[in-house]
Amino acid sequence: MNEFESRRISFFEQMSDNSLAIFSSSDEKVRNNDSEYRFRQSSDFLYLSGLNEPDACLVLVKTEDAQKSILFNRAKDRLEEIWHGYRLGQKAAVSDLYFDQAYQIDELLEKLPLLLNGIDTIYFPIFQDEKLEIVLKEVMTEMRGDKRKGVIAPHQFIDSLPILHEMRLIKSEAEIALLSEAAEISAAGHIRAMQACRPGMWEYQLQSEVEYEFAQQGTRDIAYNSIVAGGENACILHYTNNNRQLRDGQLVLIDAGAEYQGYAGDITRTFPVNGHFSEHQAMLYQLVLDIQVRAISQVRPGATLFDINQNVIKQMVDGLIELGIMEGDPDELIAQEAYKDFYMHGIGHYLGLDVHDVGEYGTKDNPRLLEPGMVVTIEPGLYISHDADVDDVWKKIGIRIEDDVLVTESGGDVLTADVPKSINEIEALMADA
Ligand code: GLY
Ligand code: MN
Ligand code: MN
Question: Can 81 be counted among the known catalytic residues?
């Protein structure tokens, strides 16, 4: 059975009797005047449909007699296709994407009231898709107005996303293969950047080396805006300006991931612009690396990102006290969250079609247990800004090391292991280049 079809079937299994679910595609977005941003499909829509086109809606109808997957998508149009490119159309939606039926998107407003007549429940992304809600409101208003003609409008509305996002959280074999490919391509980009880096380069030039390699390895998409941050810029967590010159003696932090067939890689490496860690850089780097390696070793079914992070915080505070960067009682420093001056983000997140992928994390008191098939990032960091209350030798240094880890039956499988991260390996790779 086709992967997308089998996902729709598992969604059907979780729908109540006599219900209908509706999801819409992303729209094209104007960048300026008549130029558009590169189209990126809604991850939810892509997951269930396999269709990478705008102006489409997916409808799942579950009645006593049947389960029907119906696609509403753009009509084939010779002139539009000459100007803007191929469209799947309705015939191929049925033959290639295994929909039971396909109609032109222009028919949605006409067909939806017929499909909904007598249906009890509608599943849709409540408060998360304004355009779809306008359509549903129009259809509901029409159906309610027609009740004296024997039309029965739905009366129950359920958010579809918690169901879908639980499905997306646990990756199938096919998804793991795509995430592994995204991870390997991302790794190749980071290796190329380490080899290409020289003092005097601009951050955006180093960015282009990473993204060049993504393209050479088979994908033109990035999973998020690449961060290439020299020196103190690494202390800006979401630095994407990438417009400063890289200087001899600085570290550079690269957080970049390829997107492969919709699936994200997410890797961070930090390395010396000139190929050699200074003594103080090496001390800080080794602390983050030891923390990261230990955190990865704790990934297994039944562990939680929350507990892993508590251990990271403990190890970070102990390490910073040892280096003389923090002073005081470790337990008190942790209770006061004093470490947040230096490590202010979480240990990681789910990874999938979205870089910060969907799925619940639980609460602080009841954190979610990791399960086989989840993919998480492990990304501790240490950021010492120019105004930190520490000795000058430590200032203006930002370090993060991030890998992508598949939770397996027995532990964690690092998908991004190809990029070196030990001091010796990084220095050797850069020296060879
Ligand atoms: N690249 C975004 C993150 O690491 O979460
Ligand atoms: Mn990440
Ligand atoms: Mn990242």
Answer: no
356 is catalytic: yes
Domain ranges for the chain, please list them: 2-168, 170-432
DSSP-assigned beta bridge partners for residue 70:
59, 101
Q: pLDDT, tens digit, for every residue of 9-23?
A: 999 999 999 999 999
pLDDT tens for each residue of 248-288: 999 999 999 999 999 999 999 999 999 999 999 999 999 99
223 CB within 6 A, ligand 1: no
Nearest-ligand number for the alpha carbon of 378 = 2
Nearest CA to ligand 1 atom 5: 356
Separation of 253 CA from ligand 3 center, angstroms? Answer: 10
Cα(360)–Cα(230) distance, rounded to whole angstroms? 34
Residue 409 neighbours by CB under 8 Å, 6+ apart? 301, 372
Q: What's the CATH class of domain 170-432?
A: alpha beta
Q: What is the CATH code of the structural domain delimited by 2-168?
A: 3.40.350.10
Distance 228 CA to ligand 1 centre (A): 12
Is residue 165 part of the annotated active site? The answer reads no
Strand boundaries in 164-238, DSSP class E:
221-222, 227-230
Judge if pTM exceeds 0.90: yes
